[in-house]
Amino acid sequence: MLIIRHCRPKRRRRRETDVGAGSWSPARWALWSAPSVVVGYVLAVDALAIAVLGGSLVGVDIASGDWIRFAALAAGSAIHIEAGREIDRLRWSAAEGATYVNLKAMWVFASVLILPLPLAIAITALSYLHSWSRLRRSAPHRNVFSASTVVLASAAAVVCLTTLNPDGHPGYTGGAIGLVAVSVAATAYWFINYTLVVGAVVLSNPDSSARKALGQLSDQFLVAGAIGLGITTAALLIYQPWLAVAQLITVLGLHRALLVGQFQTAARTDSNTGLANTVFWHEIATKELERARNNHTPLGVLYLDLDHFKAINDTHGHLAGDQVLKAVAAELKHDVRTGDLVGRLGGEEFAILLPNASPDETTNAAERIRRRIAGLVITVTTQRGPATVDGLTCSIGAATYPTAGHTLDGLLLAADTATYTAKSSGRNRVITAPHVHAN
Fold first, then answer.
1. CA-based diameter of the chain, in Å?
2. Pairing between β-strand 430-432 and β-strand 394-401 as defined by DSSP bridges
3. Which of 14, 187, 267, 314 is 20 to 30 A removed from 63 (C-alpha atoms)?
């Protein structure tokens, strides 16, 4: 399924929902600042989806068995989203300005085949709402638009099924004719969703290449696989419902085994700390800054440098120093929100990306991290046996887009300069970069 792309914390003093990708209040959507052609296109698709929903409610007959299958598909979708949440967050960030492919079609297309259309639309709404609430990687209007394209794609699939099935049945009827009907419906489902999303990507990113907007061919194979899984899920729920549990376990296992390995390699993590290395951190930071610019939302950057780290290596050895870095990295990962990204830039220097964080939120996050680092007590291994490292401190520079800079290089320079000021002012403190004015 295509949509627009435009570590659970161990201990946390703020809820994940404190900062999100925009407000659900339509009056505050970033959509209204987009070109009029984009606004018109998005609203037209949303309105058509609402019309389809209204039309589907006329004379609908929902049996008790439909509600049971609805509950099964809703539960499967929720489990799938939770299991792949961290993977999808990385994939989403890497797809700015292009189509983004997910596996929701496994559940949505299955619902199209075996449920009345209103319930299939409800599955779509629930899966997109759940995904948005957990990932918060998309502005609300984009999430609504993406769900609307799926509603229209589902309606097209139902029309195909109703037209091609001998008795006008809207769902899966089995047999050779049923296979043809399902194949045509699947093609229509994919084509409507793909065309609408590509249209929005092209209109929203006129400077992006057409090839990037169309996405990779491999992505379409992934969509085909998700739709195929949807067909088998539907068949299992009709004829062997308990075996659907086995399919869910299989899909989750393959999803994590294949995609986790793929994205651990693609993410280019730092081998010592497990954090994003400087190349990947800059890549994601560039994408997030582009999103912040498009959505008119803030973005925070923290530059952290451990104080007197050389003394740890000199006293306890480099092996102990590596253990301290791992402990600091673990603390940083536990203390940030799900959508934040921590990277190791080299040595004892770290960078933290805070999407949708205001200047005050960025500074507060830096102070919280500084206190957490100062409270660390780390047991390390030395040639003389176990030793304890405490009293560790850090100096942090904080910078926020657009107040402290308008480019990634500008933000990093502002944060780095603020860190240097913190060092020269006595260390163990946070310095916020001053505001700058646009040229």
1. 82
2. parallel
3. 187
> Which residue do the tokens 């609203």 mark?
43
Q: Which two tokens stand for residue 254?
A: 């393959």
Rounded Cα distance, 439 and 435, in Å: 13
C-alpha dihedral sign at 129, 249, 259, 18: positive
- Specify the DSSP element, H or E, that contains 303: strand 299-306
CB distance 112 to 63 below 8 Å: no
pLDDT lower than 70: segments of the chain: 1-24, 86-101, 135-138, 168-174, 205-216, 218, 255-267, 437-439
Region label for 317, one of left (φ > 0), alpha (ψ between -120 and 50) or beta (otherwise)? left
Q: What is the pLDDT of residue 201?
A: 80
Given a contact cutoff of 8 angstroms between Cβ atoms, the answer to whether 44 and 36 are in contact is no
Q: Give the torsion sign (CA, 389, 393, 394, 398).
A: positive
> Are 200 and 89 within one domain?
yes
Taking the CA atoms of the chain, what radius of gyration do you get in angstroms?
A: 25
Q: Tens of pLDDT along 300-352?
A: 999 999 999 999 999 999 889 999 999 999 999 988 988 899 999 888 999 99
Q: Record the pTM.
A: 0.57
Residues 6+ away with beta carbon under 8 Å from 167: 173
Residue-range definition of the domain harbouring residue 282: 278-432
Nearest residue to 356 (alpha-carbon basis) of 341, 370, 377: 341
Q: Which of 267, 292, 314 is the last residue of a domain?
A: 267
Q: What percent of the chain has pLDDT over 90?
A: 49
Cα(299)–Cα(353) distance, rounded to whole angstroms?
8
